[in-house]
Amino acid sequence: MSLALRPRPGNGEPSAQRDLTSHLLQLPVELVVAIASQVPRPSQILASQSCRALRNILCDSVLQGEDRLPENLSREEQAEFLLCLSRGRPGEWVCEECMELHPAYMHDTPAKPMSEGYLPCFFPGFGLRQDLNVHANYGFKLNHRHVQLALKHARLAAAGSLGTTYLQRLLQPHHKRIRSRYTRRRLVDATFSAHPKVVDGRFLVKTTFDFREGHDKVRREYLGTVGLCGHQLIQASDVQGWRGQLSDSHNDLHPLYALLVAARAAFQKPGTEFCGRCEFCGTDFSVEASPERVTVRAWKDFGPEGTTYDPYWRSHASRVFSTRTACRMAGSIRELYGEDTGQAMRALGADSVPGSWIWVDGMPPYGVGRRMVLD
Predict the structure, then answer these.
(1) Which domain of life is it from (predicted)?
(2) Rounded to the nearest 5°, which phi and psi values hold at 256?
């Protein structure tokens, strides 16, 4: 597939004369061509769209008159190119399903997402790309376009070139009552909330599952199904029976059961907050339990402005546990969100890797220091 490029608004004779004052265009033409020949093809095409002078130089030499993306360019490179092309366009977002720029709609937010049937390419996410949606709980549906637009609007608003109306809508908190057989019988009252936030150019979301006593005290089986990410999940049957064996071949706790172990520790020691982290994606979580109230919180980092090929995003979207994994300091996302761990206790004694967000390939080793610590 070849993508035709649309010229940037405002390009013309006046802008070409303004660009003649740039340091790059003061260099000899042969040196500009030599520099341009060392960068990737998408970057060459983007440079040719910046002004008429560069377009004339690059199209006559490096691009040889062909200012279209080649058909053999990978989808990842096409997405990166379109993302760079739309950096200064707050009203457009990159659709990686059809590899086009789509207009943004003010009413399209994670708390009130627009029906995918009304998007220009018709049902994105049901074709080649299945990882455009990573979070859908109780009406809060986070699509990659929401993350892309929120980070772009935050960056442009910080530079003073854009208002914050749509950004505030994208970051609007979401609250929903949880409907289950336990809430319908009024045994407990349960709510779900999501609070998006942009911090240091990263898109963060804090989610909270809150269970309060109704006609009965909060029991473990009343939690129903609680999923914090694609890897950490507890169900009523798991909490009630604790799944029997919670160990791998090395007789150590498996990281997939981190949330389950934290919940068990919280019920064993009421009133104490136990924290943990998912070793397969950017998620910190905590569990605090008592007969009157159980609260499960998660702090999720969806990464900086980028495409769905970014490892931060893919760690949330992927359901294959042997893909790239985030090794980081426990509690780093919670602190980045602006909340201190306080007196929270760690339910897992997993060793941390020094630094923050050090990416490694494959699954982390399970053989060292992962037993539950309660004191």
Answers:
(1) Eukaryota
(2) -70, -20
Average pLDDT over the chain, rounded to an integer: 75
Amino acid at 180: S
Record the tokens describing residue 289, joined without a space. Answer: 């339990």
Tokens linked to 238? 């798991």
CA trace torsion 85, 88, 93, 96 (10° rounding):
30
Q: What is the pTM of this model?
A: 0.77
| Domain co-membership, 185 together with 302 | yes
Each residue's pLDDT tens digit, 334-366: 999 998 876 677 765 333 333 333 333 333 333
Residues in a beta bridge with 204:
197, 301
Mean pLDDT of 51-60: 81
User: Domains in the chain: how many in total?
Assistant: 2
**Cβ atoms of 111 and 172 closer than 8 Å:** yes
Q: Please report, in angstroms and rounded to a whole number, the separation of the first and last CA atoms in the chain.
A: 59
Cα angle, residue 295 at apex, residues 245 and 252 outer, rounded to 5°: 25
Same domain, yes or no, for 101 and 194? no
Q: Where is the domain boundary, 152, 168, 184?
A: 168
Residues 6+ apart with CB under 8 A from 71: 1, 2
Domain assignment of residue 314, given as a range: 174-360
Instruction: Give the whole-angstrom CA distance, residue 306 versus residue 35.
Output: 25
In a domain, 220, yes or no: yes
Mapping DSSP to helix (H, G, I), strand (E, B) and coil, where does residue 275 land? strand
Write down which residue in 168, 201, 230 finishes a domain: 168
Contact 207, 227 (CB under 8 A): no
Measured CA distances, 153 to 45, 81, 115, 148, 205 (Å): 25, 19, 22, 9, 17
- The β-bridge partners of 92 are 103
**Which one has a higher pLDDT value, 353 or 203?**
203
Number of alpha carbons in the 13 Å side-chain half-sphere of residue 363 = 11
Structure tokens at 86: 């739309």
CA distance 145 to 134: 11
